[in-house]
Amino acid sequence: MQGKLITDRAALFLGDAAHVGQVLGPNSIDAIVTDPPAGIGFMGREWDEDKGGRDEWIAWLSDVMRNAMHVLKPGGHALIWALPRTSHWTTTAVENAGFEIRDIVMHLFGTGFPKSFDVSKAIDSSLGATSLRQVIRPGAKSGAAPDANTYGSGLNVGFQPRELTLPASEAARAWHGWGTALKPAAEHWILARKPLEGTVAANVQTWGTGGLNIDACRIGEDVVGWGGGGRGAGDSGTWNADACGLRGGDARPAVGRWPANVTLDEHSAELLDAQSGVLTSGANPARRGPTKARSTYKDTFAGQASCTPARGENTGGASRFFYVAKPSKAERNTGCEHLPTRITNTELPPGTKGANSPRAGANRSGAAQNHHPTVKSIALMRWLCRLITPPGGAVLDLFAGSGSTGVAALAEGFEFIGVERDPDYAAIACARIRHALGDTMNHLEEEHPFSQ
Q1: Which of 22, 193, 239, 444 has its CA 20 to 30 A from that of 316?
Q2: Are 333 and 403 in the same domain?
Q3: pLDDT tens-digit map of 266-297
């Protein structure tokens, strides 16, 4: 591997993630947060090919993750991104490598749009009748980004809307309005753990890994988790003022809600809040006494007339229960101002797999210094890093891409090690990480500071 940037807090290497053991010693990393390919040929990219099929792709990622587990400390957690339609491939590969699958964190977002074949157009095309279709709204031809009015609020503002046409043939009219893909609005983060050495208690004391940093990742500032019928799921125990160093008249601390395995961006939050309306945390509705429906489980609710408010007074939509994050254009390009501007879809001429396949992802338009097609939100990545990394720990990203995980890890006070095989993306990641470090010099060292 070639060192692109090595400092006392961050290291970025150009090379194959399967060779991470060449630069890192065994049991030297505290957490893995990484965004591997999905095996769908995203936008025609060679690095996202399926390696020959499902079994070959799973074997490839298993080998990468097996080597990564070797450098991870016992009990260390990993969060591995996956596309929903191939998340079973990713999960199988991670499990085959020897990790324990602990959970799936689902991130919901509102900025995706469908890359779908129009079945009606396909039929007219097969009949040679495409030119006979009546144009009812002029616009960009197939492959251009849709407008905001078509696929959701605030999406792709400034892009030309797609051309809309009516079927020309009788066969096409029978299938007007039919497509081949749903709007992408979710991604998975597979939460896995390297097997513990002994118990959780023994492992965390020996290696500093094995647990999740729940309190540091709580959502909001609600008073939750103490006493009464309002105690939230996952929050056990009864409020004890003495145990918390408070006297009887002191207020309960605002600790926030237990982190969920669902996160939202602003667009998804707006949709959720529009459906939930304004809610106020507090007691459950008063019960009217025992009924047959309420006493079917060993009369659990028999005689219960009300619940005691115990969740604070926090008002808002349902999205306040979840983490909200969204990347911006400025966030993508910070630190990359000196790099050349590129358009992401310049490699996708008409007729290529990336331009036509509904499985390959939608084309991006617009020029930017950070032209990586799947830049992650730094706020989201900070939350994920914080959830699984002990204070002062080292985070490894096997597929560093444009460096979002590195920027996030450094912002949280962690050390970062990244591996990226594409020289163009490595240059972007290097620029963003150097900016995060406040470093304008490329301090290369002969020895990797994180090796053991």
Answers
A1: 239
A2: yes
A3: 666 676 677 666 655 444 444 344 443 333 33
In angstroms, rounded to a whole number, what is the distance separating the alpha carbons of residues 72 and 66? Answer: 10
Residue 286 and residue 214: Cα distance in Å, rounded?
31
14-38 per-position pLDDT tens digit: 999 999 999 999 999 999 999 998 8
Q: Which residues span the domain enclosing 136? A: 119-173
User: Which tokens sit at 235?
Assistant: 């929050």
Domain total in the chain:
3
Side-chain half-sphere exposure of 415, counting CA atoms within 13 A: 17
Residues 7 and 79 in one domain: yes
pTM for the model stands at: 0.74
- In the three-class reduction of DSSP (H, G, I as helix; E, B as strand; rest coil), residue 283 is classed as coil
192 and 332 together in one domain: yes
CATH of the domain at 24: 3.40.50.150
Residue 155 DSSP class: S
* 10-residue averages of pLDDT along the chain (452 residues): 88 94 95 92 70 92 97 98 93 98 90 80 94 85 44 40 87 94 89 98 97 88 42 37 42 67 76 63 42 35 38 51 58 68 53 48 55 73 95 96 92 95 88 82 42 36
42 and 146 within one domain: no
CA distance 319 to 68: 35
- HSE value, Cβ hemisphere, 13 Å, CA-based, for 440: 2
125 and 246, same domain (yes or no):
no
CA nearest neighbour of 13 among 311, 422, 297 = 422
Q: Residues 370, 374, 375, 379: what is their CA dihedral angle, to the nearest 10 degrees?
A: 170
Distance CA 256, CA 314 (A): 10
210, 196 Cβ separation under 8 angstroms: yes
> How many separate helices (H) and strands (E) can be counted in the chain?
12, 16
Distance CA 416, CA 389 (A): 11
Query: What would the DSSP string read from start to end of 175-240?
Result: TTT--S-PPP-EEEEEEEEPPPSS-HHHHHHHHS-SS--TGGG-BSS---SSSSTTPPTT--S---
Cα 124 to chain centroid, rounded: 39
Strands 2-6 and 10-14, sheet pairing:
antiparallel
